[in-house]
Write a structure and sequence with these properties.
17 helices, TIM Barrel, about 700 residues, single chain, 11-stranded mixed β-sheet, EC 3.1.4.11, PLC-like_Pdiesterase_TIM-brl, alpha/beta, PLipase_C_Pinositol-sp_Y, Immunoglobulin-like, 3 domains
Length: about 700
C-alpha cells in the first residue's frame, strides 16, 4: 500500500477515472531501441509477409471512419496495431510503409484500453455505479493524520463524484441538542470530544501522535478565525474532522468553498455530498446557510420538475434521470420526518377532569393553577437530531438506518442505506437475493470497516457485483482497491451505467420498474433471469504476450535504472454474471466442499501469472506468455476462439485485468515500480501498449508492449 503524500498534479493522477488522466498523454513520442526492434519484427513477419502486395495509403485515410482502411478481419478494430497469426489466411494491410505503421503504433489508437462507451444518461441514478470517496478530508491514516481541503480538490479533479464530510461543532456550546450518531455519548466541545475519544484509544494510539496533537493545537490557535455566522457574529462555525481521534480539523466553510470551486472542473456529472452530522441544531442551521451560499444554483434543494412525482409527498418522489442532474450537487443526509401538525383535539370536559382528579393519589393534591395542565402529560418528545431544514436538502438521497429490506423506508424511492463492509457482508450472507434485488432499484453506499485505521481499502469488486452504487474508498493511499476503481471509471466522468441485469426493470428506478413494492423493490424473478442471460459470458480465456517495456519509473527502493530488475505480474479479477433467483437459492445451499469457481473438473482457475525478471527501464521480456484459462480443458494462446468449456462465467463489464511492474530486489521487499488496471470489456485484442502509472498513481511515459487474445 503506497501513500499519496506530497504535492501532485491531481488531473494527472489515477484513481477515479478522471477524463484528463484517461485520455491525455496516451501518445508515444519516441520508441526505445528495444520496442522498435519488436515493432520491426511485427511489421516484417506478421504484416508485410501476410500481405506483400498491400496498397499505399495515408495515415489520414487509415484514421477515417471507413472500416475498409483499417479492418483486417472480423475481430480487428481501429485500436489494434495488427491482429493475425502466421499460418492463418493472408490479409491485406492498411499500412503503406513502416513509417506509417510506427505512426499508427505511437497514436492513442493503440492504447490497450479502448475508449469508453457512449452511455445512455436517461436512466434513474440508481442504475449507475458512482466513483466514491471515504472520509475525503483526511490526508493519511484514520487516527492522527491532517484534515485538509486539498483532499476534496484532489478527488474531485481525479473524477470522484461522491464525497464525505464529517461535521462537528466549531466550539464548546452549552447546547443539549443531540448529534446524528445513535451510539456516541453526550460529550460537548471539540477538545473534550478528542480527549474522550483518545481516552478510549488508550495505549493503541502511537506515542508520536501525542506530539502531533500538541503541535496541531498550537498551530490552530495561530490560524485566523473563520468568517462569522451572519445570524450570530460571535458564534463559531462548524468544523470537519474525524471524531474521537487526534486528526486535525478544517473549517466546514472552507470545505464547501473548495467543493464549489472544483466540483465540475473535470466533469459535469452530479456530485453527491454525504454528510455525517455530529453538530448541534444551531450549528446545523449554519451548515445550511453555508451550503446555500457556496453552492447556489448547483445545490438541489427541491424536487426538479423533470423528475415528476408528488413534490408534496417526499415518499412518492421518484429518482431522477442522470441527464437531469448535470452540474448539480445532491445532499445525502439522515432523514427527519416533518413534525406533525398541532393537535386539534378539544380540551377535556370538566367532568373528565374530575374523574382524573379522583384517580390521582391523595398525597398529591391538584394544583390550583391553569386547569389544562392537570391533564396527564405524555412522555416528553425526543428532540430531533437532524434539523428539518437540513434534512429537507436530502431531496433524492435520504439516508436511513438499515434494519431490513422489508421495512417501509426500504420501499421509498429516494432512500439510501449505508453499511460498512462488514455489515454488508453479513447482509449478503443472510439474504443475498434481497440485497441484489434492492440494489437494482435503490441506492446503497458501502464504506471501509473501522479497523482499517491505516486507511487501507476494501476490494470494491464484490460490492459492485452486488449492485452497490457507491463503494467508498480511501483515495489518499494506493492499493488494489484504488487500482480497480481507476479501471472501473476510466474516462467515464465518475458515473458508469450498470450492465443489463443490474438495473431496475425496464429502466425505471425507485421501485417503479417491477410489479410490486416493499423491500424487494419490485423484483421480478422472470425479468431477472432474462436480464441475467443478457450479460452472461462464455467461460473466459485470456492470453497476454509481454514483449517489452520502455521508460519504466523507478520504485522507491531503486535509485538507478541500471539496477532495475523488472518483472510483470498480471492478475485477472473475474465477476460472475448477476445470479438469477434460482442460482441464488443454489448458492445458499451449496456445501462447503463445492468450490465457488468450478473449473470443469480441472481445479480452480489460475488467475495470477508473472514473467521472469528482465533488466533496465527499457526491458525486453522476450514475448513471455501469461495464460489465463478460467474455463479449463484447453490452453489459451494467441488468437484463440471463444472458450467452450463449462466452467466460470464472467461479466466483462465488472471484470478486470491488473498489471504490476515489480522490481526484483534480492535483498529486500519487491516494490511496485508501475501499474495499470483495465476493465475487461474495454481491453483491445491484438498488439497494443499498456500505459503505466507510478506507485503514487501519477501518469508516466512508461508503457508495456503486449499482445492480447481474449476468448469468451
Amino acid at each position: 500500500m503506497a501513500p499519496t503524500a506530497g504535492p501532485v498534479n491531481a488531473e494527472l493522477q489515477a484513481g477515479g477515472g478522471n477524463l484528463a488522466s484517461s485520455l491525455t498523454a496516451k501518445e508515444i513520442t519516441a520508441f526505445s531501441p528495444t520496442i522498435l526492434r519488436h515493432l520491426k519484427q511485427i511489421y516484417e513477419h506478421e504484416i508485410r509477409e501476410a500481405a506483400p502486395g498491400f496498397s499505399q495509403g495515408s495515415c489520414d485515410e487509415r484514421s477515417a471512419d471507413s472500416a475498409a482502411h483499417v479492418t483486417v478481419d472480423n475481430n480487428y478494430t481501429r485500436g489494434d496495431v495488427y491482429e493475425t497469426s502466421l499460418g492463418q489466411r493472408r490479409y491485406s494491410t492498411p499500412f503503406g510503409s513502416f513509417d506509417e505503421f510506427l505512426a499508427h503504433a505511437a497514436s492513442s489508437s493503440c492504447n490497450a484500453l479502448g475508449p469508453p462507451k457512449t452511455y445512455d444518461l436517461d436512466h434513474p441514478i440508481s442504475n449507475y455505479f458512482i466513483s466514491s470517496s471515504h472520509n475525503t478530508y483526511l490526508t493519511g491514516n484514520q487516527l492522527y493524520s491532517r484534515s485538509s481541503t486539498d483532499g476534496y480538490k484532489n478527488v474531485l479533479l481525479r473524477g470522484c463524484r461522491c464525497i464525505e464530510i464529517d461535521v462537528w461543532d466549531g466550539e464548546s456550546p452549552d447546547d443539549t441538542s443531540g448529534s446524528s450518531s445513535d451510539e456516541e455519548p453526550e460529550v460537548y466541545g471539540l477538545r473534550n470530544r478528542l480527549k474522550h475519544g483518545l481516552g478510549h484509544l488508550g495505549h493503541h494510539l502511537p506515542a508520536a501522535s501525542k506530539h502531533r496533537e500538541q503541535a496541531s493545537h498550537a498551530q490552530q490557535e495561530q490560524q485566523s478565525a473563520p468568517k462569522p455566522w451572519r445570524s450570530q457574529a460571535a458564534r463559531a462555525e462548524p468544523r470537519v474532522l474525524h471524531g474521537y481521534t487526534a486528526t486535525r480539523e478544517v473549517p466546514f466553510r472552507a470545505v464547501c468553498e473548495t467543493i464549489g470551486k472544483y466540483a465540475f472542473q473535470t466533469s459535469d456529472m452530479p456530485v453527491i455530498v454525504s454528510l455525517e452530522v455530529h453538530a448541534c441544531l444551531e450549528q446545523q442551521e449554519i451548515m445550511v446557510e453555508i451550503m446555500e451560499e457556496m453552492w447556489r444554483d448547483h445545490l438541489v434543494d427541491h424536487v426538479l420538475p423533470a423528475s415528476g412525482g408528488d413534490a408534496h409527498d417526499a415518499n412518492d418522489v421518484p429518482l431522477p434521470k442522470l441527464s437531469d442532474l448535470r452540474n448539480k450537487i445532491l445532499i445525502k443526509v439522515k432523514y427527519t420526518p416533518p413534525k406533525p401538525p398541532p393537535s386539534k383535539k378539544p380540551p377535556p370536559a370538566p367532568e373528565q377532569l374530575a374523574k382524573i382528579d379522583s384517580a390521582l393519589p391523595s398525597a398529591a393534591p391538584p394544583d390550583s393553577s391553569d386547569s389544562d395542565s392537570e391533564a396527564p402529560s405524555s412522555a416528553p418528545a425526543q428532540k430531533s437530531k437532524i434539523l428539518s431544514t437540513l434534512s429537507r436538502l436530502g431531496v433524492y438521497t435520504r439516508s436511513y438506518h438499515f434494519r431490513s429490506f422489508t421495512t417501509p423506508e426500504a420501499a421509498i424511492p429516494t432512500h439510501v442505506f449505508a453499511l460498512s463492509e462488514k455489515s454488508l457482508l453479513g447482509v449478503h450472507a443472510a439474504d443475498p437475493t434481497a440485497l441484489f434485488a434492492h440494489n437494482r432499484d435503490f441506492l446503497m453506499r458501502a464504506y471501509p470497516k473501522g479497523l482499517r485505521v491505516s486507511s487501507s481499502n476494501l476490494d470494491p469488486a464484490p460490492f459492485w457485483q452486488q449492485g452497490v452504487q457507491m463503494v467508498a474508498l480511501n483515495w489518499q493511499v494506493w492499493d488494489r482497491g484504488m487500482m480497480l476503481n481507476e479501471a472501473m471509471f476510466a474516462g467515464e466522468g465518475g458515473w458508469v451505467l450498470k450492465p443489463e441485469g443490474y438495473r431496475s426493470s425496464g429502466g425505471h428506478g425507485g421501485g417503479g420498474g417491477g410489479d410490486g413494492g416493499g423491500g424487494s423493490g419490485g423484483f421480478s424473478a422472470t425479468t431477472a433471469m432474462q436480464q441475467t442471460d443478457d450479460v452472461s459470458r462464455a467461460p473466459p480465456s485470456l492470453a497476454i504476450e509481454v514483449l517489452a517495456a520502455q521508460n519504466l519509473p523507478l520504485p522507491p527502493s531503486c535509485k538507478d535504472e541500471r539496477h532495475l530488475r523488472p518483472y510483470v505480474k498480471c492478475e485477472l479479477h473475474l465477476s460472475p454474471p448477476p445470479p438469477s433467483p434460482a442460482a441464488r437459492a443454489h448458492a445458499t445451499t451449496r456445501t462447503p466442499s463445492t468450490p465457488p469457481h468450478s473449473n470443469g473438473g480441472h481445479g480452480p482457475p489460475k488467475l495470477k501469472q508473472q514473467t521472469r525478471p528482465s533488466r533496465g527501464a527499457d526491458a525486453d521480456f522476450g514475448r513471455q506468455l501469461l495464460r489465463f484459462d478460467a474455463a479449463g480443458g484447453g490452453a489459451a494462446g494467441p488468437g484463440p476462439g471463444p472458450g467452450s468449456g463449462s466452467g466460470t462465467r464472467a461479466t466483462e463489464a465488472l471484470s478486470f485485468v491488473r498489471f504490476k511492474v515489480v522490481h526484483d530486489d534480492s535483498f529486500g521487499r519487491d516494490d511496485v515500480a508501475a501499474w495499470a488496471c483495465l476493465r475487461l470489456d474495454r481491453v483491445r485484442r491484438g498488439y497494443a501498449f499498456v500505459h503505466l502509472y507510478d506507485a503514487r498513481g501519477m501518469q508516466t511515459a512508461g508503457v508495456l508492449l503486449v499482445r492480447v487474445a481474449k476468448g469468451g
